[in-house]
Amino acid sequence: xxxxxxxxxxxxxxxxxxxxxxxxxxxxxPKIVEYLKEPPSAAxxxxxxxxxxxxxxxxxxxxxxxYAELGLKDKELKDDELIALMVKNPILxxxxxxxxxxxxxxxxxxxxxxKIL
Length: 117
Fold this sequence. Notes:
alpha+beta, Glutaredoxin, four-stranded mixed beta sheet, 4 strands
């Protein structure tokens, strides 16, 4: 495979582990970014959102305690504000996200990433 495949991965998440295993099973050796240790920049997150065709709220983990603590139910917050909060609190970013070339997919279910390879 000539293009780089990147997985934004959390090794403690079963879906993330399953997605990584599926990629490896298909012969893909992705670049692994443990996004909790190494969060994407705001620019990178905007690019990923554009590839996904989603808004920041669409990939936020609403069940995380920090979501409530930061008052993120507030619909007044602008996309740039949400992205900044996601970069600062990467636990809010849904996982795993796989990027292949100019395409991206969320590995929920893990098989959904196969369509971008």
